[in-house]
Design goal:
This protein is α+β, with helices and mostly antiparallel strands and about 100 residues long. It has one domain: 2-Layer Sandwich (uncharacterized conserved protein from methanopyrus kandleri fold like), CATH 3.30.1860. Helices cover about 25% and strands about 45% of the residues. It has three helices and eight strands; from the N terminus they run ββββαβαβαββ. The longest helix has 10 residues.
Length: about 100
Amino acid sequence: MQFSVKVTDHQKNLVLNICDIDLLGKNIVEDQLNMNISKIYYGQKIIEHEEAKHLLKNASMINMVGKDTVSLSIELGVGSESAIKLVGGIPFLIVFKM
C-alpha cells in the first residue's frame, strides 16, 4: 500500500500532509465544499506502508485524507473515529498532538 505525502517542519514540529495515492490530484466535491487533493499540498513523495506508520506516529500535526490513510491512523491510535469527517464520501481527518 502506498501513500502520497508532504512533510514539513514548522516551529520544530513535524507537519504531515498524507493521502491515499489514488486521490492525489483529484477534486472531491460535496454541495458547496470543494476539496482539492493537490500535488503541491500532498505530493512531495510517494511512500510505503511502514514509512507512513512511522510518520503518522511521529508527526505533531497531521492533515490526512482517504480511506486507507485514515484507517491506518485509527489503527495506530493517532486519530479518533469520532473526529472523522466525510467529504463526498471520502474520510478526512486533522490531528494536532500536544
